[in-house]
Amino acid sequence: MLSSRSGRFRLRLLPRIIVFATVAYVLSWISGFPLQYDDEELPPSAQRPKPSLEPFPVEPDKLVVTVKTTAVDAFAKVPPMIVMTDGRYHDNLLFMGDLHMDVGIWHIFDVLDRYDRTFLDKTPEMERYRRQLDYARRSIPLSTIREEDATEEKEALRKLDKYKILRMLEKAWEMRPERKWYVFMDDDTYLARSNLLSWLGQFDNEKPVFFANPPSETVEPFAMGGSTIILSVQAMRSLFVDHEKLIPRWDSRLQARSSALDVIGTVLATETTLKMNNTWPSITGFNPNTIPYGPGMWCELMIAMHSVPSDLASDVFRFQRDREEFQHVRDPLSYADLWLHFMQPENLDKERDDWDNLSSGSDNAHWNILFEGVDKENNANRNQEPRAASGEESWESCRNSCNNSDFCVQWSYSSTEEPNYNLNPPTKCHLSRSMRFGSHVAPGREDQTTWTSGWRKDRFQAWAKQQRCKEQQN
Ligand SMILES: *[C@@H]1O[C@H](CO)[C@@H](O)[C@H](O)[C@H]1NC(C)=O
Ligand SMILES: *[C@@H]1O[C@H](CO)[C@@H](O)[C@H](O)[C@H]1NC(C)=O
Ligand SMILES: *[C@@H]1O[C@H](CO)[C@@H](O)[C@H](O)[C@H]1NC(C)=O
After folding, report:
1. Beta bridge partners of 255
2. Burial level of 288, CB count in 10 A (0-12/13-18/19+)?
3. What is the DSSP string of 64-118?
4. Mean pLDDT, rounded, of the chain
5. Cα angle vertex 141, ends 138, 145, to 5°?
6. Domain residue extents for the chain
7. d(CA 439, ligand 3 centre) in Å
8. pLDDT score recorded for residue 15
9. Which residues cross the membrane (predicted)?
């Protein structure tokens, strides 16, 4: 009796298990469904993990990321950086600066303590560092060491950076020798590690490789370039294994160099003949509000952005995490994805007052539309481009001028003439082929210039629809 009841029960149980399993499968399928469904793709749960297609796969523990910080910024910049770095990368995340400090359980290494006292005392550019040591010894709050003038503060830190860079490389090699790749970046750089790992997989780390994004080069808007530097293990060996005590030999030659990037570039070129390779546009000085979305950037991978405020970094981090961990999207994050996430939801139909930083500025020079009748002599390439009528009289005429130019996707009108940093003369009407979000500009700031800006999202979306990123990538 008992056994036959339990037998019947088992028979009923089986269909239930099947129903339950089906429901669980469907639920997991729905929760993993990508928001932007790409019809070439199977539902993510039906995809098998792709075998690595890269010839030189980089495992997460083979990438060492060294973040450069400074004593006065460390407590503001280091904690967000840690929070926005997935735990699986923490073992190879190093912080280096200009004073020994602890931020929670993380130590910030003072790499300038590697110079001897005599060198410190006789090097004028190390004045800030000497003062920091003095303040720390006498328990004077470090925040008071900052220069009041932002430019002077930047200058003081730029000088220290020249002395930090080689010592950072040296320290990273001592702490994590013989990994595959070494990244050195600023404390306000957003790094998309999964993109970086797969991108690096194209390159043989057993060859000397040196990537960086130089801050300025003719037309291309490297203008806001930071100083992300990527070296292969072979490039690191050429400095620390092939040569004995190479770094100290450069101490006295650092003063003549202009920046940290100049230091590392010169040392590698002189000691190893290794030249820098460009990483534009995957590593740029833009952030989601300043990226000039459009031709030349749309399909490209975003690997790193510089000068990203923490709140914006957090938005990008959450977006990337949602895509990868919850929607299981395996395509690397591109600028097009950032546009869809950050700009498409914005209502850009109406012009905005007190709004700028989109069409003016040297970093947009490349995308500004030239006006009819400007100098036709010295730039053959740009003379091929369609021109626009100027719209100097009012923001309405500037908007018209944009409406009447097929390639114009945004305009900004300034109350005073401002440069476009290209063949255009100083102008109030700034027209652009790229689309940027920009930012609110409080009226009545020091220069009294006011701004009104507007977009043509419909036109931009029509353009975007014609781009075929999948085929262009890889
Ligand atoms: C670096 O640039 C040189 C010259 O353009 C090129 O030949 C080389 O393949 C590049 N190396 C890498 C790793 O991209
Ligand atoms: C320019 O185009 C926008 C959007 O299509 C439209 O709202 C606006 O009225 C146009 N302006 C003129 C002057 O045609
Ligand atoms: C606009 O961008 C420039 C650099 O391109 C920056 O110096 C300025 O502070 C920005 N203005 C605003 C309001 O964000």
Report:
1. none
2. buried
3. EEEEE--TTTHHHHHHHHHHTS-GGGGGGEEEEESS-EEETTEEEEEGGGGS-HH
4. 85
5. 100
6. 15-48, 60-326, 350-472
7. 8
8. 58
9. 13-35
Q: What is the DSSP string of 149-191?
A: SHHHHHHHHHHHHHHHHHHHHHHHHHHSTT-SEEEEEETT-EE
Binding site membership of 268 for ligand 1 (Cβ less than 6 Å): no
CATH class given for the domain over 60-326: alpha beta
**Average of pLDDT values for 38-65?**
65
- Kindly state the tokens that stand for 19: 């129903």
Yes or no: say if 369 and 398 are a contact pair by the CB < 8 Å rule.
Answer: no
As a whole number, mean pLDDT of residues 426-436 equals 92
The pTM of the whole model exceeds 0.85: no
Ligand nearest to the CA of 278: 1
Question: What gap in Å lies between CA 143 and CA 386, rounded to an integer?
Answer: 52
Taking alpha carbons only, the member of 400, 305, 309, 415 closest to residue 360 is 415
Helix (H) or strand (E) holding 231: strand 229-232
Q: Give all strands (DSSP E) within 335-434, no chain letters.
A: 352-353, 355-356, 410-418, 427-432
**Residue 203 CA: which ligand 1 atom is closest?**
13
The CB of 391 under 6 Å from ligand 3? The reply is: no
Q: Which ligand is nearest to the CA of 458?
A: 2
Q: Closest ligand 3 atom to the C-alpha of 223?
A: 5
CA atoms within 13 A on the CB side of 224: 21
pLDDT tens, position by position, 328-362: 998 899 999 999 999 999 999 998 998 886 777 77
For the CA of 456, the nearest atom of ligand 2: 4
Q: Is 53 helix (H, G, I), strand (E, B) or coil?
A: coil
How many angstroms separate the alpha carbon of residue 403 from the centre of ligand 2?
6
Sign of dihedral through CA atoms 269, 286, 62, 474? negative
Helix (H, G, I), strand (E, B) or coil at 304: strand
The alpha carbon of 198 and the centre of ligand 1 are apart by a number of angstroms equal to 18
Measured between alpha carbons, how far is 212 from 232 in angstroms, rounded to an integer? 12
Q: Which ligand is nearest to the CA of 360?
A: 3
